[in-house]
Amino acid sequence: MTSYDVLIVGAGHAGAQAAVVLRQQGYEGTVAIVGDEPEIPYERPPLSKDYLAGEKAFERILIRPATFWGERKVEMLTGRRVTQVDPAAKTVTIAGGEQIGYGTLIWAAGGSPRMLPCEGADLKGIHVVRTRADADAMKDALDHVTDVVVVGGGYIGLEAAAVLSKFGKKVTVLEALPRVLARVAGEPLSRFYEEEHRAHGVDVRLDAKMAGFVGEAGALTGVRMADGEIIPAQMAIVGIGIIPAVAPLLEAGATGGNGVDVDQFCQTSLPDIYAIGDCAAHANDFCDGEHIRLESVQNANDQASCVAKGIMGDRQPYHAVPWFWSNQYDLKLQTVGLSTGHDDIVVRGEPASRNFSVVYLKQGRVIALDCVNATKDYVQGRKLVIDRISPDRDKLADAGVPLKELVA
Ligand code: FAD
After folding, report:
1. Does any ligand 1 atom lie closer than 6 A to the CB of residue 302?
2. Are 367 and 341 in contact (CB under 8 A)?
3. How far is the CA of 201 from the centre of ligand 1 (A)?
């Protein structure tokens, strides 16, 4: 049986970064990454943005070129799915029966898209966007598509809607809640994006009650709404979140549920097993220690660094300010902090100018910012979030006052 000093499960953002940082820090033990996709690690955000739009080739979204991994002696065991973990024997089992031993296991398996358990869910033409294969399947089908329904008004669904409407498709977005981005952003941002999409011809439907998919000869022809209306669609994109890929760890006895629980060093309840990235449920300092999973490149990279440095003896608790971005049309959104639990919102600038920021406060202190085409606010506002500063509210609302002046 082959064994590695560090075995990483999941060849995505977090897994790749863990290996990169281990080698950067001078780690000399053996390192391998097991991943169930055929590709070496690549960036996922472009899958709903410029890769989907055909503006970036796959080679340009690789996290590191193929030669990097060989030069750094990181073994890439792609196309292999881990089905079991045995923490006592310190082995994992790959589908098909192969076993691999480990000294330390880093679980970085992300999650798989949540599907809709409704009528017609297995029709051809229903897509999700998580992998390169998913994005390629959409791109391959596009020539035969005139109408697209996006189920879910979250970032991924809205980004895909923006790309497809630019391609001239007739796009409908179905959001079950009263506003898009409801789980991640405040109302001003939701309303702004709803209007932007409508201005680009997207039919944004809120409080939308979908009943199922309808088709002919196994292929999607439309989406049936609860009131009986059928919205024509040859393509549907379901973007309603992910289910964290943690079953083998939970079956091995790790605590968790929605993800696997980790402590402040990203360690699971099982010995020598860490979990990082989308699948790791951790107490986050930027939402009062609430136990959450973050689905962002920032979190994947920073948790990976935290674990890799810990393995090298520099054990520091995970404490990184969350940040995120989203590109839709010519709008660049940059967010910092977590707005969960805010009790006040200040809008800096005019949304109609397409250059503004939404600032979230809790008990007078800044906890998050969403900046639309407002990179200066994003850069200067980070400190307000990190230090939970309590600024003068009038100055905060005045877009003419640079945020750096409120930091002192
Ligand atoms: P992943 O990158 O998903 O990697 C996990 C890997 O593990 C996958 O390859 C998976 O197939 C594999 N795997 C799962 N189970 C097993 C198993 N049992 N055995 C072996 N391998 C396994 N974040 C941002 O910050 N900004 C954005 O703009 C943004 N846009 C996004 C757009 C899209 C379309 C998507 C899908 C995500 C986006 N994200 C964005 C989120 C970001 O990509 C994720 O947070 C990040 O990829 C998480 O990294 P991860 O390593 O935890 O998981």
Report:
1. no
2. yes
3. 30
Whose structure tokens read 């790790």? 254
CA 276 to centroid of ligand 1, rounded, Å:
11
Q: What angle (nearest 5°) sits at the alpha carbon of residue 241, between those of residues 357 and 269? A: 105
Question: What is the C-alpha to C-alpha distance for residues 346 and 189, in angstroms, rounded to an integer?
Answer: 11
Digit-by-digit pLDDT tens for the chain (408 residues) are 999 999 999 999 999 999 999 999 999 999 999 999 999 999 999 999 999 999 999 999 999 999 999 999 999 999 999 999 999 999 999 999 999 999 999 999 999 999 999 999 999 999 999 999 999 999 999 999 999 999 999 999 999 999 999 999 999 999 999 999 999 999 999 999 999 999 999 999 999 999 999 999 999 999 999 999 999 999 999 999 999 999 999 999 999 999 999 999 999 999 999 999 999 999 999 999 999 999 999 999 999 999 999 999 999 999 999 999 999 999 999 999 999 999 999 999 999 999 999 999 999 999 999 999 999 999 999 999 999 999 999 999 999 999 999 987
Q: Determine the residue type at 252.
A: A
Query: For residue 298, which atom of ligand 1 is closest to its CA?
Result: 25
First-to-last C-alpha distance (Å) of the chain: 59
239 within ligand 1 shell (Cβ under 6 A) = no
Ligand 1 binding pocket includes 173 (Cβ within 6 Å): no
